[in-house]
Amino acid sequence: MDLINNLQSFLRVAETGSFSAVAAQRGVTQPAISRQVGALEEYLGAQLVQRSTQAVTLTEEGRNLLAPAQQLVDAAEGIRNMTGRGQREPVGSVRVAVPVPLGFYFSDRVSSLLTCHGELSIDLVMRDHVGSLVEEGLDLAVVAGTVEDSSLICRRVGWTSSFVVATPEYLAGRPLPREPSDLAGHDCIVHRRRGSDGTWWFTDRRKASTDEGRECAVKVGGRLSADNESAVYRAAVGGHGIANLSHLLVMDDIGSGRLCRLLPDHQCRRQPVYITYTSRRHLAQRTRAVMDFLVELIQEDPHMKL
């Protein structure tokens, strides 16, 4: 029996409350995870989980095992990092969550990282919302804005940048917005984020050092909204209205003339970008390699660098 591997599966089941979720995270079948936990129970001579059709819950013995199991898994990972391949090169899979625009940017450039480290693999999760590292089995997560989970280690690595854009076809025959308030007369494609109410925030670059240059808010609206930024981007490119999008999505289109940048004198509100991970004593070499690569990518971009 692979004790460490089975303990890892047990800890994931305890965190997620689901055999199938852990199976999806680890790329195996649900019965395989169930067998691993069953083998651990047989080895220890105790029932660790209560199984039902609706939920998986820990027994008292299972709850008592959590802390020592995590300590043993962390110690094994530390030994691997200190000796052998784990010290010399990144080995294994890293599951990392990133915002959608950064995910496209990362996937376009990740071949250099994978070529450099032949035994490293990456499971990329692209999403517009902030999730849970523990519940989703993530090693790293890139977060734009406030990190609400105080238990996480947060490394600030850059800033977001976004531009207001539209196609020449949409703008044809319509008044060109000169000030943020002019957006009220246009169809704006709203990206629905959690807690978002369709308000766009701007700072006038021409008055940045004065009180008049402080942020102004504009409530925008239109006939189309979406909870995914790539959908907003496609709608904007399709000529359906004005959008506020990450520069990572629109820079090439602005350069080619496919999209026009609007309100260049007004900077859209920027958010800090953090790389987050759980507060474990030992950070795996493979995880550190992916984190360092992400930091380099962000710092190479003049619109994101600190």
TrEMBL record:
Keyword Cell membrane: no
Pfam families hit by this protein: HTH_1, LysR_substrate
Keyword set, alphabetical order: DNA-binding, Transcription, Transcription regulation
InterPro entries: LysR-type_TF_proteobact-type (IPR058163), LysR_HTH_N (IPR000847), LysR_subst-bd (IPR005119), WH-like_DNA-bd_sf (IPR036388), WH_DNA-bd_sf (IPR036390)
Keyword Transcription regulation: yes
TM ranges: none
GO molecular function: DNA binding; DNA-binding transcription factor activity
Protein family (similarity comment): Belongs to the LysR transcriptional regulatory family.
Protein name: LysR family transcriptional regulator
UniProt lineage: Bacteria, Pseudomonadati, Myxococcota, Polyangia, Polyangiales
